[in-house]
Amino acid sequence: MSLFKARDWWSTILGDKEEFDQGCLCLANVDNSGNGQDKIIVGSFMGYLRIFSPHPAKTGDGAQAEDLLLEVDLRDPVLQVEVGKFVSGTEMLHLAVLHSRKLCVYSVSGTLGNVEHGNQYQMKLMYEHNLQRTACNMTYGSFGGIKGRDLICIQSMDGMLMVFEQESYAFGRFLPGFLLPGPLAYSSRTDSFITVSSCRQVESYKYQVLAFATDADKRQETEQQKLGSGKRLVVDWTLNIGEQALDICIVSFNQSASSVFVLGERNFFCLKDNGQIRFMKKLDWSPSCFLPYCSVSEGTINTLIANHNNMLHIYQDVTLKWATQLPHIPVAVRVGCLHDLKGVIVTLSDDGHLQCSYLGTDPSLFQAPNVESRELNYDELDVEMKELQKIIKDINKSQGVWPMTEREDDLNVSVVVSPNFDSVSQATDVEVGTDLVPSVTVKVMLQNRVILQKAKLSVYVQPPLELTCDQFTFEFMNRNPDGIPRVIQCKFRLPLKLICLPGQPSKTASHKITIDTNKSPVSLLSLFPGFASQSDDDQVNVMGFHFLGGARVTLLASKTSQRYRIQSEQFEDLWLITNELILRLQEYFEKQGVKDFACSFSGSMPLQEYFELIDHHFELRINGEKLEELLSERAVQFRAIQRRLLARFKDKTPAPLQHLDTLLDGTYKQVIALADAVEENQGNLFQSFTRLKSATHLVILLIGLWQKLSADQVAILEAAFLPLQEDTQELGWEETVDAAISHLLKTCLSKSSKEQALNLNSQLNIPKDTSQLKKHITLLCDRLAKGGRLCLSTDAAAPQTMVMPGGCTTIPESDLEERSVEQDSTELFTNRRHLTAETPRPEVSPLQGVSE
């Protein structure tokens, strides 16, 4: 913050909700008065033009009625105002006003009255030019070295420079490589126009080159005509400044040298006439406008630079000489002579705050009050410190990272799933094949006992299941007493009919699994009442399920033994019905009061079918990499051909294309075909990964039933086999799962300490094939069959303590993450034709809501 504020000499606020920019302010003797006093000309985007001549009775006075000489509504937005010798036959100053589609030149004159309030000012339109293109900005000067008059150059929004010789239009030229317009200035010493292109480089164009270049109006001619007539518009010099420019100003205070000043977004540049950098200054703030002016020291230039911190800095070359505070953020700054006061700084903000100020050190009457000093009581400080340390120690002992146990009743979350489907489905895709996709309404109720701060409710499902709204925020549940974020979870299950319908049982199938129980078989009508047919009594032991999209699964209950068989044509389709059968059997026997019910799996582990899905998924990943590499090569070839063609077209002497156009067309077709192939492969890869996840859930479920694993051991398997929610080329399922299973084999399932001493590679790369992964999965099942135990600590499996390899430190984190995210089953489409659900272990639900 500056020690000194800019001293307010005169100020006013223009209009009501009007907007202004850097071209809307100009200071000049526009009425050609004999005293040579400057007038303030301001134009607004609302179309108002105002001319002020401040005469404050004392410093700091506001605007009086007589200060406003003229106010005119031009009815078109004013982009820029300039004053110069714009009328032929006279060297009087005239006012040029630039609109978006029009350039108007006015003469401003005043008539003296008998009294002070009798002075009258009026504007007379001398001439106007209707523009064929939308204007951006303009500059003026004695183009071509003419004497006694000024010419105007207007830059359009599409990069055309239009030169007007006062009342007549001279010519128009397009800037090469134009994209967006930048600031424009004219250097009289070099007779050139200087701008900053969208390539972030300063460019200089000679006026003579512009005058003799090919006319922009002839751009509609044929290619042969354009190559044979006129000259190309060639840039004189360029300088890359690496940032966009806010403004350009050219200063020449003597005939020997001139300087080009460029204000960037973070730097301030001073260039020579030939484009070499004279000096530059890195700014620590964001500038808004600037103005170079002459210095009292020989060979130096002073510059006013305003910024968005309401500060005005005065530099002598690169040395900061003064800093002052302004009451607003200026978008334009000028220096002039007002009311016999030289060096008045005039600033204009974007909302119309116009102020005339000067730099001074008027003394301030404010005096800072004396600070009351008191002695420190160290005994009280020690007591307070001990109390705070005790509070911190108690919190660290009693609570973990997520304190979920002590105040569990502060917020209760309950969920009610509607028993009936919505009458009008809210699904994005109403149909999947020939089946209609239903939707169900879920009501979530929150009950808070204390005032909470910003409670958020999140509902998560895995794609392709969708929610109409998955985030809710409650602002009016004020604060949490301890200030620590807390998470409360509520789990619930969705109806099975949401993803499958009753179907016709099938007698034969390619894939079958058998689940053993220790209780008598239960009627399938009792387990699946919503899937029973009214006329078929055989569904007591046989029941068919039809997934949305066409897949079918058959469930059979043995009449004599305590077994259930699930069969289907696809291996991954077995998981949903198997998991749902176990869940419903557990619920059934719990209602009957039976506590020793258990399920088991005694058949052979279906690893061969599982490995086929792994190989198919890995093959699609390799195919995707090959397609992307080939697409990259074709794209490089396409750009190379484009550059060759562009060089041929720009050549002055036409040359044959040598079938480059045919090669370009063929390469383009190859690029499009490869892009379509990549997109198709990505869709197939997504479907394959979904099938693989469903099959992985089934394998984990069968391993848990086979070895009677606990819930914690099943969670470790889930963390190892399902570490990713999405499969990408950079980090895929195969290498991640292989690293996790290798870690288990070398820690809790290791046979000796030698295996634990082997370090794993900390970097995961896509493997050459899946043989090693399949070998590790087979070895994992073999060691579990021989009595191995899954645990996160290595002490339970080995006699000595070992440091966990660096590449596998994510296993415990994945355990916590998967238990919080994957703990509940979420329904997934195994392909785009049917649906399946995912459930890590039987006692969890297919949807999870998290509120915090």
Automatic annotation (TrEMBL):
Residues 709-784 form the PTHB1 C-terminal helix bundle domain. GO terms for cellular component: BBSome; membrane. One of its GO terms (biological process) is cilium assembly. The keyword Coiled coil applies. Residues 811-852 are annotated as: Disordered. Residues 495-602 form the PTHB1 platform domain. InterPro entries: PHTB1_GAE_dom (IPR028074), PHTB1_N_dom (IPR028073), PTHB1 (IPR026511), PTHB1_CtH_dom (IPR055364), PTHB1_hp_dom (IPR055363), PTHB1_pf_dom (IPR055362). The keyword Manganese does not apply. Residues 1-363 form the PTHB1 N-terminal domain. Pfam families: PHTB1_N (PF14727), PTHB1_CtH (PF23339), PTHB1_GAE (PF14728), PTHB1_hp (PF23338), PTHB1_pf (PF23337). Keywords: Coiled coil. Residues 437-478 form the PTHB1 GAE domain. Residues 371-398 form a coiled coil. Residues 604-707 form the PTHB1 hairpin domain. This is Bardet-Biedl syndrome 9.
